[in-house]
């Protein structure tokens, strides 16, 4: 038995935090709590990031050119030239994270051709729904001015842009990632998350090779945190489907769900909305109708896998909820399916989400990092409902918070909870304690509850000072998974 003392904060079932002065750990589990208000370091349940692309975070930390925060085309050109000089001949130059609202302009194919004429270049926008290519890359992919856009996507040859499912055309030509690449990325991403107090995460969308990377790391006992993985079913740009995954469950790894996409992103004005976007116009891209989603998701639902669907715009959210309602009618199930993002639900969407008992897995940090895009593009009158987490909470919808990194830079749950509290686009913010509680919902991802109640796994984060009293200054000092230190600051 080991005693961990300090100011221990444990939420009850309704999310009210109570203070204790110590907790006891035995064989990786919480064995007991000592009443009283302790002093010194603050100890909280380890956070669950319910939607974070672990491998992409790792890839960005290792192999990709990180373009997040690049604030001018000149700076972008400089970074590209520098990387171009360091890559071996013939290698593709891949980058991610540009955002025209931060850059001050849209980069173009002509711009890329001028800066890096000698090798294929593909730069993914921060949302990952829009990709920019130079002419070399388009040639390698066999894409020309006469190429026809696939359904659910669009190629804009002149601009060099690939929207939504059209990326599949380009992706086929990019040298494939290996199993070892994936393993390296997952571990790099996992350690980055741990350093921010995240002890469990959901990987939202894995192809068969990434699933194998996770399974192999788990078999070797190398996963430093708990991960739940959603399998991709319909790869972009291809008509054949991946097979449904075999359910997998160990102490560290769960494969129990599948992922679909119903629309695009809000920051790039491609989420499917009922009113036109300002400045750029259009109502976004609906990638799946309720009927199509129902047909695609039924086999997973029948197999006992939970379904998670990306839906941001009010139109997409309703389509997904209609599909889910049909799934539950076709075969009643205690599984709670999920909507990823849930950015702009209309009143009907809120009522239906509550009635079906599904999870809204949402990203408060967007309010800070994608604010400029929201302010610029959001359709008239949509501001008050944009990631309005207080409204979703009030409607009684199950909420789980997440970062969606590397769409954003910040993976810290404390920063996310702070954004929900201090940066709303909709009046009064969500209290910090609510935000932290919604970052403590591993059951949204098919993982066991982890709230430091006796009997729960001793997955915990230690802050150097009380995050409720000093939210701006509190730093992660130590992290434990199964009562074993996995990070020390
Ligand atoms: Zn995502």
TrEMBL record:
Pfam families referenced in this protein's UniProt entry, alphabetically: Amidohydro_3 (PF07969)
GO terms, molecular function: hydrolase activity, acting on carbon-nitrogen (but not peptide) bonds
InterPro entries, alphabetized: Amidohydro_3 (IPR013108), Metal-dep_hydrolase_composite (IPR011059), Metal_Hydrolase (IPR032466)
Domain Amidohydrolase residues, every copy: 39-486
SUPFAM superfamilies per the UniProt record, alphabetical: Composite domain of metallo-dependent hydrolases, Metallo-dependent hydrolases
Record-given protein name: Amidohydrolase 3 domain-containing protein
Organism: Thermus arciformis
